[in-house]
Design goal:
2 copies of one chain form a homodimer. Chain A is of the alpha/beta class. The first copy, chain A, is built from 13 helices and 12 strands. A 6-stranded parallel β-sheet of chain A has the order 2-1-3-4-5-11, with helices on both faces. A 4-stranded parallel β-sheet of chain A has the order 7-6-8-9, sandwiched between helices. The first copy, chain A, binds a DNA duplex through residues 1, 3-5, 13-20, 23, 25, 27-29, 32, 47-48, 50-57.
Chain lengths: 337, 337
DNA sequence: CAAACTGGCTTAAACGATTTCGTAGCTTGA
DNA sequence: TCAAGCTACGAAATCGTTTAAGCCAGTTTG
């Protein structure tokens, strides 16, 4: 490998001079700089990130923490979209991405230790499970972090507008004339809590009384459970006219169940999803849903994290709310007249 | 940060002794080792991967290259599954994962340069676009690589059994009595070529003549184009009785088109997908498809790559074929009687 | 009993880069 | 003419870790 030393010998200058020339310091003569740059290119010199990291204590490397309770991990389009855009933005700003995990090889480390071990400058945390103590240890540490969809002690985070999303959906459904709206919701997480609160509040503000049995617990990304919940709702004497699903993918379970019972969407039953994944927009009828702007979230997360890293003094911790978009598909029927 | 130096001072031994004690060298007294290990734990010592990498020339870090022509990137479940399992297996073997990209920050590098820059011990390459010269430069280099779904000059690769997959599908469809099978295929890649060849061969071996207009070009992961192709096939005077789609997701476009024309699946038209993503198995009727075993592929890729890295002498380059599984759903009708 | 060996530790160099502090030589100004 | 200032560069320390080589005392061997 070509190193700075090789260049310095070839050019008859010291290693210090080469380093300065390549890094644009001003105390080197113009001719010398030109010569060094030329020789460096000729010899195929590449800087060594490892050596630089060791000396400077900065790796230009961002850790990404995806903890996966559910088993679907990166397969969830919401997460993979965030990761994809986070990666693009980080790279644009000169940072690489490394996954942070526990237990690398035989050596067992927690997330915080792993981050230090790899000298990551900061970590983006996207996980369902923020109750994990190892995750909390990392967030609470001195390492710059940005958490997605979770706020810890006023630290920087990027949040999807769950309140606004559910509110927009419910308002739209209400405007279409629906008064009996059921909500099949995901497992108990802070996100789910926000959605439930928003659902309650919105309904209350619209003067809607929602009976307890219109709330059905299910899981995210699990069509089977949503299917079961759907069946229970169909069995009610006062069937809802519209069902909200935990997410677009879970809705598939409901869709199948409705079809099995000969209940047509949206004529006999209106439905809405959440997420706005690709799938939702290619189904027919097109699913009414709330699109979470995962691209913007990933991008913002990378941007804020880099800011925290590069201006630790001036970068204020903040919660960035990324609003999504109501996608009016064709699965909520207008029953006004 | 606690370093080896701190421990050495506390224990009254040299840094070399500490390093050896922690790394299990045998020329240190048992008492000394015990004491050093204890003090290290007490002080919260963590090894520094960067320093180690610099000294040893080994980073225990694997690069992952995902190039994305299509724009859907990691969002494609096939890729994200591979990545997920690759990550798990690499970590199990003591390696971290870093994404390799071009153009990090203002400095422009190709993939090979980036890999050297970050001192990655090896790279797993998963991309659609193997014609990219920068990708080829990396594969052809001295850096250990494992490519997915692509063979370069007999180097190690992990391959999905595209030949066997299409063959299995066609045989199954033939056995169900179909003689007019159309094939909507993806864009021109080596994978597509293999599938087309397999389709031709299998049909020939079954004595099936397939007219040219039963082959429709479309794109992977693009329901719209598959929808259009479906429409064209429906307009034919000698309609096929079964349509093969580029992949499960694209099939959605066909599904919609068929429904629009009042063509019911599978009574009026049989269909099959490819990939076996989650979606395919929650749709009703359940999609008949060929499941690519992305988990095994990612796992094998990581395993082989680590082998190439750790035993460069003895690890023979090889092509590992990962076979998938025919998922007999309910979308291919038995029309034998 | 000298030579050879051994266990247990240290010394010092090395990995590749950056940066602080000099300093030699030149120009400038009064 | 000389102090001051500037330009262009170098010496050396440093980041944290590893390892070849050396050393010393004590033990074994011929």
């Amino acid at each position: 490998m070509v190193t700075i030393k090789d260049i310095s010998e070839r050019c008859g200058v010291s290693r210090a001079t080469v380093s300065k020339a390549l890094n644009g310091h001003t105390d080197i003569g113009a001719d010398t700089i030109a010569q060094i740059r030329r020789v460096a290119k000729e010899m195929g010199y590449l800087p060594n990130a490892t050596a630089r990291t060791l000396k400077l204590g900065r790796s230009h490397n961002i850790g990404v923490l995806f903890v996966d309770k559910t088993g679907c991990g990166l397969r969830h389009e919401y997460f993979s979209s965030i990761l994809d855009s986070l990666k693009v933005e980080a790279e644009r700003r000169g940072y690489d991405i490394t996954f942070i995990s526990k237990d690398i090889g035989e050596f067992s480390m927690d997330y915080y230790e792993h981050t230090k071990y790899r000298n990551c400058d900061g970590v983006a945390i996207a996980t369902v499970d923020f109750s994990n103590p190892a995750v909390l240890k990392l967030i609470a540490s001195e390492i710059p972090t940005v958490s997605l969809d979770f706020v810890y002690d006023n630290r920087t985070s990027v949040l999807s507008d769950n309140i606004g999303g559910i509110s927009a959906l419910v308002h739209y459904i209400y405007d279409m004339g629906h008064r009996r709206i059921a909500f099949i919701h995901g497992e108990d997480t802070s996100v789910t809590q926000k959605r439930l609160i928003s659902f309650h509040k919105t309904c209350a503000s619209l003067g809607l009384h929602v009976p307890e049995y219109y709330f059905k617990p299910a899981l995210y990304h699990d069509p089977k459970l949503s299917g079961l919940a759907t069946r229970e709702l169909l069995a009610l004497s006062d069937r809802p006219t519209c069902i909200l699903y935990p997410d677009d993918f879970s809705f598939i379970g409901g869709m199948n169940e409705l079809e099995r019972h000969g209940v047509s969407i949206p004529d006999d039953m209106s439905v809405a999803g959440y997420d706005g994944i690709l799938l939702s927009q290619v189904l027919r009828p097109r699913l009414t849903t709330y699109r979470q702007d995962a691209e913007t979230m990933g991008c913002e997360a990378a941007a804020k994290l880099v800011e925290l890293i590069e201006q630790p003094k001036t970068a204020l911790p903040q919660q960035i709310m990324v609003s999504g978009q109501l996608l009016k598909g064709d699965t909520v029927k207008n029953i006004n007249e």
